Amino acid sequence: MLNYQALLDAIEQNKIKPVHEAIVAHLNQYPEDHAAYYVLAILNIKLRNIAKAIAILDKCLSIQPCSKYTVEKAKLLLFSNQPLQAKAILDAITPESTLVAAELDTIANMHLRLSQFASANVFFERAYNAASDNPNISLNFAINEKMRGNVEKAHSILVKLCKKHPVFIRAQVALSELSDSTSSQERIGELEKLLTQSSTIPQAQYDLYHALALEFEKLGELDSAWHCFNLSKVAVESLIGFDNATYVRFIEELKGATNTPIQFEAFDDIEPIFVVGVPRSGTSLTEQLLSHSDHFKALGELATFPQYLGVNNSLIQTLEALKQEYITGEACRRYREMYLSLSQGKRGIDKFPFNYLFVDILAKAFPKASFVFVHRDRKNSAIANFRQHYQPNSPFHHYSFNFEHCQLVTELADSLRLHFTNKHQQVFDLSYEKLVHNPSEVLTDLCHFLNADFDPEMLNFHQKNYYSATASKLQLRKPLNQDGLSRYNGYIKLIGGKN
């Protein structure tokens, strides 16, 4: 019989041809060996033949239904932009199902990506209870608790995790995001020691310098903090490939597209609310304020439309896909299906911030949609994005690894906001500064725009303890305040002095 684990190891080592030959020969002799088919599915995943891998997993399940194959299929469906099919599989898996810890953790993460927060919490907790000694499972559970607002519990788990696994860098970053200044001096020493051990690994440098910057920031040592934020970004900036001139052309093309009519029938049976804007501009706050009303349902950050569109790190390819969308409407059609499955009869709020790039096509495809374009002071917005720990492989946050790029993108986003506001009556221009200064007045206007009544209870959003998977998860646990207006004054003064 085959040594399946040895074959899986060989696939990881890119020994594709001998593995394929061995599996095919084996299956010719043993055509009902589901484990051999599973290895063949993994081989096809390695080759990025996702559709074929899914078909092979279906074969596995026809021979031997089991959770391992089911979870793997759901994961492939989700990551190949088939979220409804993945959701159908996940919804059929109950918390009482017999699953190993790794499967529970994977299911939890998939529920999270689908904004099914209650289900995600159930499976994260089960995974942690089953394998609390697993570092990755412990980290995921701690992050889940942070998103639920259980900050002290999350902090306690992370402290133990970092003490037991000090070189687990992702856990170190998560701990720096939660710990207070009382431990900063000690942590600075620990992080600097880890940096010397990871001097040749760009991702590790990116993570550790970011954690170090946060510790200096807590101590009020902003010069050192800004220096470390810079070092963090420099560690991976060369891997990103953001070009100012190309991005400027990209935005101009988006503006030009407003003169392009759609060539498919619009979908006028849904009324989604898109809360959009540059990240860290107040989109999460706006969503939470609105979703405290019975009229609306928060759907989280649905990145489904750009995923259906095929957005990647190539702006040119994104533009080509967008031009095709004006003709076919395929991504819009699939978005409608996803929206209907999640909104449950209410007006759903999709707060994926980067939908601000696609306001025109979405407004034309969904004539009853509303757009809340949130913006704030450009300097604060640029600093907030630069000091954020985004993943280098993100097709949206590629600008955030250079402060000048952050400034450019916030400036261009403002120009796009003004352009779309003039072109589409469906767009509400929302200033973060005006919102926190005069919340009742601004929310009354916004609710009127959305054909709803303002409820003063909206201002008590922080008491509902929403599950927040965004960078604003900690701020959303506090009442509406004006702290954010001056949060980066020290950096503004520092940057101004250097310029």
What would the keywords be for this entry?
single chain, 499 residues, globular
Summary, kept brief:
The protein is mainly alpha-helical and 499 residues long.
Describe the protein in words.
It is a single chain. The chain is mainly α. It has helices at 4-12, 16-29, 34-46, 50-63, 67-79, 83-91, 101-113, 117-130, 135-148, 151-164, 169-178, 184-197, 202-218, 222-237, 244-256, 283-291, 304-309, 315-328, 330-343, 359-365, 378-386, 403-423, 432-437, 439-449, 483-486, 489-498; strands at 273-276, 296-298, 347-350, 370-375, 427-431. The protein has a five-stranded parallel β-sheet, with helices on both faces. The termini are far apart.
Outline the secondary-structure elements.
Elements: H1 4-12, H2 16-29, H3 34-46, H4 50-63, H5 67-79, H6 83-91, H7 101-113, H8 117-130, H9 135-148, H10 151-164, H11 169-178, H12 184-197, H13 202-218, H14 222-237, H15 244-256, E1 273-276, H16 283-291, E2 296-298, H17 304-309, H18 315-328, H19 330-343, E3 347-350, H20 359-365, E4 370-375, H21 378-386, H22 403-423, E5 427-431, H23 432-437, H24 439-449, H25 483-486, H26 489-498
Parallel strand pairs: 1-3, 1-4, 2-3, 4-5
Helix pairs in contact: 1-3, 2-3, 3-4, 4-5, 5-6, 5-7, 7-8, 8-9, 9-10, 10-11, 11-13, 12-13, 13-14, 15-22, 21-22
